[in-house]
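The following block was generated as part of the benchmark described in Methods. Ligand: magnesium ion.
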Amino acid sequence: MRENVPLTLLPLSRTILHMDMDAFFAAIEQADNPALKGKPVIVGGAKRGVVSTASYEARKYGVRSAMPIFEARKRCPQGIFLPVRMERYQEVSQKVMAILEAVSPLVEQVSIDEAFIDLAGTERLHGDTTQAARKIKGKIYAEACLTCSIGIAPNKFLAKIASDLEKPDGLTIVPEEVQSFLKDLPVGKLPGVGPKSEEALRSLGIYAVSDILRFPPGLLERKFGKYGLRLVELAQGIDDSPVIPCSPAKSMGSEDTLPEDTTAINILKKQLLSQAEEVGERLRRHGLKGRTVTLKLKHSDFALVTRSHSLKEATCATKILYDTAVMLLERYNLKTPVRLIGLAVSNFGEGQQYSLLPGVEKETEKLERVDHAIDRIREKLGRQIITRGSNL
Ligand code: TTP
Ligand code: MG
């Protein structure tokens, strides 16, 4: 495929680093409480009672992310089970990302604990790529007492596969000649190949990545559509997707398609309440407050309507988000049935605002303080423990 592309159009060779923290939530718990080091630590329980992650010591007993907590207790009765402390993990995540941003401005954070870095032009400051990787590992360990695994390759997908190969505390460098690296790799490691596509590929006799190249691209295209051609590229180690430095989120929202189209205000209000709860909690977890609340409605004819209201002051209080959205809904004068409803908050301001007069707590602050307390209880005891009355 590639032979026909004029050389001038090919991107210059790149060096991409992928970093993924080891057993992130559990490792933070161990760093914050050294008595937990070397012990089987299992973090989770907040959402539907499943494991968020387990320390490598607990993984020896077969404990894995997304496993029900009761199953984890069976497999590892001596495990130390801890609740999720999302705010703390966000804080550490930001610290780690700041370390990466000091190495290169081209950092794309892809989740709470992983990022790609394009190392172009960093050689003078940070030495060759292995040196840059060692510097990053050293700094993360020195500043956060945590280990990470790093993969370095000519492109993003190879770097991501590489970072996973020698976990924990790994450093894997993919050679320029990528075919030997890809040859025996199971197809399930390729981006976009989930259990279902893996099964479909297996039915064709494709197990390892190199097996893909035994098939004419046309046949794979017929079988898998455009993704069939993408598979052929991946099997050749080709991936030109750039590292895109992220801009911080500009809005945060939640929306739901209703089980049935409706004009019943009570049903819509109930939906808005759960959305206000979810968005409020996410804002608080990220230390954000927003000034503009937007109500989104999609009617049964798919016509989309949005209505916004800007508050005097940025907030993260669930009740204020809910009241504002309900006010927008009531003003809207609904006539046609609604199939989807959503609530979003934007126009983020400062996270903290204090009363001007000492001792006087404003209504908003009181609400936010209660919300924070509810978040903490829910984190400890589960989401169902406190439900709000719909007459908030
Ligand atoms: P991962 O990077 O997938 O896992 P990890 O860092 O715990 O372990 P490792 O990378 O060494 O294999 O996810 C990062 C964090 O995201 C993880 O610490 C907890 C959270 N998480 C969940 O809450 N639920 C999940 O199902 C997964 C996979 C992760
Ligand atoms: Mg990780």
